[in-house]
Amino acid sequence: MVHEDLMLLLINQRTGRLLADSSSVENALAGAVLIELVNSGRVAFEPNGKKLQIADPTPLKDPFLQESLGRFDKPMKPQRAVERLRKKVRDNVIAQLEGHGVVRVEPRKVLGIFPAKNYVITGDAKVMELRHAVGEVVAGYRGPDAHTGALVTLLHAVKAVHKVFDGDKREMTKRAKEIAAGDWAGEAVRKAVEAVQAGVVAAAAAAAAASSGG
């Protein structure tokens, strides 16, 4: 699943902490869930290409994806879909990874006061294989397929490629941008990624406005 693999890439294997800020992680994960729903054929764009809607109401076997599908109570623009799918998405994806025995959640405290969580990766072999496969695409050693292309593009959308992989930031960003613009994905997936990018920009603007207002 794109959202599960994306979450694994965004966890620091050494510290168990996130490699990007919470807002970026949640935007990217919501975009990954949207891509899964589009690829499943359950969600598609209206004929005019402006809004997403349920195209096939057949229940999905995955309970999390089925619950996510239920959030499409009416046609909505991609950015709105990402906003809807973002609610509790990190906790839900982590719960799935816990269920697979790949991640263990441990409580911690920030400054000794504020409750937080560490995500301890217990399925090291799986993560190493994943990082190797996606890292080769980022480095340009091989071209992207639908899965690795989605992962790299979502990381690029939230400006996290250089946080996940070692290497020259400029070169990796250039390569990720080329992958994002590539033909590995259909139009619906491309629009889903654009919605993630729009969500990141909107979140940054809201944070800046809140900061200046304070």
Describe this structure in words.
The protein has 214 residues and is mainly α. 58% of the residues lie in helices and 10% in strands. It contains ten helices and four strands, in the order ααββαααββααααα. It has helices spanning 2-9, 22-39, 63-69, 78-86, 89-99, 124-139, 146-157, 161-164, 169-180, 187-213; strands at residues 43-45, 52-54, 103-110, 114-121. The strands form two sheets. A two-stranded antiparallel sheet has the order 1-2. A two-stranded antiparallel sheet has the order 3-4. Helix 1 (2-9) packs antiparallel against helix 2, helix 4 crosses helix 10 and helix 6 (124-139) packs across helix 7. The relative contact order is 0.17. The mean pLDDT is 86.
Which SSEs are present, and which pair or pack?
Blueprint: H1 2-9, H2 22-39, E1 43-45, E2 52-54, H3 63-69, H4 78-86, H5 89-99, E3 103-110, E4 114-121, H6 124-139, H7 146-157, H8 161-164, H9 169-180, H10 187-213
Antiparallel strand pairs: 1-2, 3-4
Helix pairs in contact: 1-2, 2-4, 2-7, 2-10, 4-10, 6-7, 7-9, 7-10
- Mean of the pLDDT scores? 86
User: In angstroms, what separates the terminal alpha carbons?
Assistant: 40 Å
Poorly predicted ranges (pLDDT <50, ≥5 residues)? none
Largest sheet: 2 strands, antiparallel
- The coarse overall form would be globular
**CA-based gyration radius:** 17 Å
* Strand portion: 5-15%
Q: Give me the secondary-structure category.
A: mainly alpha
Tally the helices.
Answer: 10
